[in-house]
Each structure stands twice: as C-alpha cells, then as structure tokens.
C-alpha cells in the first residue's frame, strides 16, 4: 500500500493532516500579527496575519543542538514552508542558569546551516522568551486576582508530600485559600527580593485531586537569585517552563505548537492557562494548540544536551564539534550535509509512538545525498610500498605515465583528474597476502590485478619485515594493458586495486571514526553511558592521497574510491596540512 501523499508530494503524517483540516475549516482565521509579539490589545491593532500557519522551534540556549533538534527544526520549518506559513526561532531563555549568548549564536548557525531561515518577507522572527517576562508577570497577577493562582509557602518537602501519587489524590495546601490580596502582596514581595529562594512559589489553583498530576496546582513562578544573560539582575523570580511556554506561543501567534511526547500530559494545563488568559482579556483568540510527536532516538547515540555536555566537559571528546558527537556542529565536521539531515528527517517521518531509529538510516541518507555530488579520489590509508621491477624495460627509465580518472563516474561532463604512475606506488596493506585465503582476488605472489586506471600487474613476491609482515611488494607490469588503450581488456583479471604513485602522492592525516558508544542504547534505563564508550572511536592514520586533493577546501566532501566518504576537516585542514575525516563507509558496515 502506498503512503498517502500531500499536495507537496511528501509523505503525509498526522501533523500534516491536522494542518490541512485546520486550513480547510477556517479555524486559524482572525489572527492578527505583523512580527511583533503582543497581548490581545496590541495584536488587535495589528493587521491580519499573512502567514497561513505559524510554528516555532524553541531551543533553550544552554547547549549545542543535536540530531534530535535537527528533526524538530526540519519538521517545524518544513511544515511552515510547505503550508505558506512562517516558523519562528524562539530562544526559550526563561531559566537563567546555564544559558548563554554564545549558545544563541551556535543555534542560529545550526538552523541556517540546515537551510532554514526565520526571516520572512523582510521581517525577522527571532524572539527571546525573556522579552515576555513583563507580560508573564501581568498574566500571573491577573490569575491571582481571578482566584486562579496563589502564593504557597509550604516547604518544598511538604509540597512534594501533599502532591499525592498516581493512585492517591493530593492534599490542599494550607495557603490555598488565602485571600487574593494577600497572595498579590506576597507575589510582589517575591519579585522585590524580600524572600529567600525556596521559601515560597506561585501556584495555579486547579484541582489537587486531578488524576493528571500536572493539574494539581502546578508551580508557575519560583524565586531564583540568579543573573539572567539578557535581563541581568532585573528579575529574581522566574516563570516555570509549563507556564511560560504556552504564553510564548500565544504572544507570537503560533498556530501549531509542536513538541515531544513527554509534554502530552502538560497539554491540559496548556489549554487551561491559555483559555483563562483569553477570558481575562489578555490573549487574542483563536489560541495556539499543542501537538506531540515522538522524539528521535538514534541507536548508539545520546540525544540529551546535558549528557553531551558531560562528554565535552569531562574531556571524553575534543569539544562540541568533535566529529564523533551527534551535535549539528559535530555532524557537520564529520562531513554530514544539510541535505542529508533533511532527507533523514523526511525518511524517519513523524509518529506518535516512541521508537529507536537505526543509525544506518542516517548513514543511508548521507550516502544518497553525497553519492551524486562527491568528487572521487584515490587514497591509501594503510600504505604498503609496491615496486614495479620491469618499469624501466617496459616504460623507460625515468619516465612516468599520466593516468586519468573521472571526477565522477556518472558525470563525465565534470571532467577528469590525473595522476602519475611510476615504478613505485603505494597500495593498501590489506590488498596483499602472502598466502591468499579462498576467494581473495587482490595481490599475492603469482597473482594478477589491475592498478585502477593503470596497468595489469603480476606479483612476483614480497620482502618481509622482522615481524613477518610484508615490507615491500614486487610486481611486473603486463605490457599493453593500460586502461583506456586498445587491447587493455585482452588480459582478464578478477581484482582491481586502488593505489597512489610515490612520485606525486601527498601525505595526509586521516581520522577514522567508529561509533562513540558500543551499546545500542548507551543511556537506556539510566545506565552509565561512560562505561559504553568505545576506546577505538577515533584512530588517526598517516595516509597517501592523490594529488588532486591538494585543492580540497575545508568542509569539502570526497568519495575515496573503495573506502567511503571523507571530508576535509573544517578546523585543521589546509594547503600545508591535509586532514580528512572519514564520514562513513561505502556500504552499511557498522
Ligand atoms: P535536551 O534534553 O537535549 O536538552 P530539550 O528538549 O531539553 O533537549 P530544547 O532546547 O528544550 O532541548 O529543545 C528544543 C526543541 O527541540 C524542543 O521543541 C524539543 O521538543 C526538540 N527536541 C529536542 N530533542 C529532540 C529529539 N530527540 N527529537 C525530536 N525533537 C527534539
Ligand atoms: Mg529542555
């Protein structure tokens, strides 16, 4: 059975169906917005919103974005683009601890690099939740005045105890019935810095017996004497995420607020809050609605900023852009392309139940994106010298032969690369065996192979090093077998090996990566993921590469023939020092 396709010919999913139904029913009409978030009064003075839908990507600027965020970015920006809408970049900076402008910059970079933009028709839709602190304060005061919130002075421990459990209802706080004026005065004192952290909080007054624990008078504000990276010392009370987020969505006129499944139980409070604030005349209708989708879980990968921060801070990796990390910065440095990540996001789709995606799906998307684009090159990663003993006789002493190869095998129009074949070349150590196992079609004494784009050669033997391994292989050229010349195919061989010529090969540092973790789910069930670290996750080798790579630009991707995809390292690669990172192999081999 084929998947239903939308007008955009992308696979449909429940969020597309919701949006299409909302657009068809006119449920989203009547919203005012012109790029300035506002309350009911301010928005009423603005023109009708020209965007058909509004979504948002709301990271907390407390770390670097990872592959899970990439899924959310592609989803939110992608839906907006597909339905004539706009997606906001919202820095959700309501929690002053650990947040920093440095992360804001990194977030902007990551979103832009993925190919998305929050500027629409010349209007920037980048917003900071901390800009809404004044409104949030007003909203909280309005709730108190309406009898919908109160200041609770129970100890944290009492609050926890009186919350009840899944099977037992909670107990009302002794402060629940205090007069509104009393709560208002206390709330003002909290703001004025007159009370200690933890001594009191503002809570919604909903229902301590609700089967949904999130409706048992959730906390709205707490005291924190912490400097905020944008509002400085102005506030010593900060809103809770559950209170702040719906308000942020409403002020920005978001239509579809898409979040991960763990917020499903918060949705009743999301609606409770917005409906009351609309009734109190503070927010314009129609109100935003929340929809939940399954977060991305990727095998062998951690997708938690906090855990990634631990790896960086404890030095298990070399920084946030370490190519072994699933951060967007790390993936980029590893050679992942924006196109590959978007393709991945599209392929995994959107569902309402949690599951694990195999890492090979990500690598598959990468290969599919790179294969038609990446120029080809030859490289020898574990070099073994090969001497062609009859070179002088057959070709001529001191002569070199120029060999040609297509830049891309399926795009002849992209032209050729060239390199020199001479009496000495480098071959891959694994391409030679003294005693070939069954089915080994590469080089062994008495065997014949083709040096790719060059001659057929016949191995005459090899010298051994002290440890018994091959030190130098010897072979003879089979005359008149050069690739691309008449009669070259007359001599049949079963194997073709890659090589680079000693005359013009360039030395390069190549970084070979394996998964950072050996476990499929390194942090499953609260497991200590550090114990699953792969000691071989990085190996650095000295390789020889063909001369065309002298021009490689940092960040440029190549397919090293027979080896896989490699990228010139963004930090360390330059004309004076070639450094390549292995992005992935040619086939799924993890
Ligand atoms: P982390 O636990 O890594 O800190 P987070 O959800 O707390 O992640 P936020 O900065 O709050 O990080 O996330 C911004 C957005 O990215 C949220 O809308 C969140 O739903 C989404 N997101 C985060 N992780 C994933 C994931 N693994 N899969 C899909 N979406 C994700
Ligand atoms: Mg978070």
SSE blueprint and pairings:
Elements: H1 14-25, H2 40-44, E1 54-57, H3 67-82, E2 86-91, H4 101-113, E3 119-120, E4 123-124, E5 126-128, H5 133-145, E6 149-152, H6 156-161, H7 180-191, E7 201-204, E8 219-223, E9 237-239, H8 241-251, E10 256-260, H9 267-279, E11 289-293, E12 297-298, H10 305-313, H11 328-334, H12 338-348, E13 356-357, H13 359-370, E14 376-377, E15 379-380, E16 383-388, H14 391-394, E17 401-406, E18 416-421, E19 424-428, E20 448-451, E21 456-464, E22 470-477, E23 496-497, E24 499-501, E25 506-513, E26 538-545, E27 557-560, E28 564-568, E29 578-584
Parallel strand pairs: 1-2, 2-5, 10-11, 12-13, 14-27, 16-22, 20-23, 25-29
Antiparallel strand pairs: 3-4, 6-7, 7-8, 8-9, 15-26, 16-19, 17-18, 19-24, 20-21, 21-22, 25-26, 27-28, 28-29
Helix pairs in contact: 3-12, 8-9, 12-13
Adenosine-5'-triphosphate (ATP) binds next to helix 3 and strand 10.
The radius of gyration is 31 Å
**Helix content bin:** 10-25%
The biggest beta sheet is recorded as:
7 strands, mixed
In terms of DSSP E residues, the strand content is 15-25%
Distance between the termini: 31 Å
- CATH architectural category of the domain at 379-497: Beta Barrel
Spell out the CATH superfamily of the domain at 379-497. Answer: Ribosomal Protein L25, Chain P
Q: Indicate the CATH topology of the domain at 379-497.
A: Ribosomal Protein L25, Chain P
Shape by Cα distribution:
elongated
Low-confidence sequence ranges: 1-7
């Amino acid at each position: 059975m084929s998947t239903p396709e939308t007008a955009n010919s992308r696979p449909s999913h429940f969020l597309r169906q919701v949006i299409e139904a909302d657009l068809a029913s006119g449920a989203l009409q009547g919203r005012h917005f012109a790029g300035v978030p506002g309350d009911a009064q301010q928005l009423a003075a603005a023109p009708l919103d020209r965007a058909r839908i509004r979504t948002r990507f709301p990271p907390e600027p407390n770390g670097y974005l990872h592959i899970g965020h990439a899924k959310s970015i592609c989803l939110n920006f992608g839906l907006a683009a597909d339905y004539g809408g706009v997606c906001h970049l919202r820095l959700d900076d309501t929690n002053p601890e650990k947040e920093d402008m440095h992360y804001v910059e990194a977030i902007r970079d990551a979103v832009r690099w993925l190919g998305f933009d929050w500027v629409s028709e010349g209007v920037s839709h980048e917003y900071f939740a901390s800009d809404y602190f004044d409104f949030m304060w007003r909203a909280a005061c309005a709730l108190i005045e309406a009898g919908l919130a109160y200041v609770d002075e129970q100890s944290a421990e009492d609050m926890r105890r009186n919350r009840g459990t899944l099977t037992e209802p909670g107990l009302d706080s002794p402060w629940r019935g205090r007069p509104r004026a009393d709560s208002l005065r206390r709330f003002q004192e909290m703001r004025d810095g007159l009370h200690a952290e933890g001594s009191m909080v503002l809570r919604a007054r909903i229902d301590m017996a609700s089967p949904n624990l999130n409706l048992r008078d959730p906390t709205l504000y707490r005291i924190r004497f912490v400097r905020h990276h944008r509002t400085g010392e102005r506030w010593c009370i900060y809103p809770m995420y559950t209170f702040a987020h719906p308000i942020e969505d409403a002020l920005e006129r978001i239509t579809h607020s898409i979040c991960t499944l763990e917020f499903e139980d918060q949705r009743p409070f999301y609606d409770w809050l917005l409906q009351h604030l609309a009734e109190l005349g503070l927010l314009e209708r129609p109100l935003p609605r929340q929809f939940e989708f399954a977060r991305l879980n990727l095998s062998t990968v951690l997708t938690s900023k906090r855990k990634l921060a631990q790896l960086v801070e404890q030095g298990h990796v070399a920084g946030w852009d370490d190519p072994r990390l699933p951060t967007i910065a790390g993936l980029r440095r590893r050679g992942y392309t924006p196109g590959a990540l978007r393709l991945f996001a599209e392929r995994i789709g959107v569902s309402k139940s949690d599951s694990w995606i195999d890492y090979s799906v990500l690598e598959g998307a990468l290969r599919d994106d790179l294969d038609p684009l990446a120029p080809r090159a030859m490289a020898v990663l574990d070099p073994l010298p090969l001497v062609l003993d009859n070179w002088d006789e057959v070709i001529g002493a001191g002569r070199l032969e120029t060999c040609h190869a297509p830049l891309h095998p399926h795009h002849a129009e992209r032209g050729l690369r060239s390199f020199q074949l001479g009496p000495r070349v480098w071959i891959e150590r694994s391409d030679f065996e003294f005693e070939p196992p069954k089915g080994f079609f590469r080089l062994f004494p008495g065997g014949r192979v083709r040096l790719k784009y060059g001659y057929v050669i016949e191995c005459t033997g090899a010298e051994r090093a002290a440890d018994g391994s091959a030190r130098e292989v010897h072979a003879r050229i089979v005359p008149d077998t050069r690739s691309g010349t008449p009669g070259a195919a007359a001599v049949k061989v079963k194997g073709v090996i890659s090589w680079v010529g000693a005359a013009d090969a360039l030395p390069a540092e190549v970084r070979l990566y394996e998964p950072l973790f050996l476990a499929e789910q390194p942090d499953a069930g609260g497991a200590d993921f550090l114990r699953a670290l792969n000691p071989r996750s990085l190996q650095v080798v000295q390789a020889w590469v063909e001369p065309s790579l002298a021009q490689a630009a940092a960040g440029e991707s190549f397919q090293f023939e027979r080896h896989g995809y490699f990228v010139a390292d963004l930090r360390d690669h330059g004309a004076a020092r070639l450094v390549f990172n292995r992005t992935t192999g040619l086939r799924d081999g993890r």
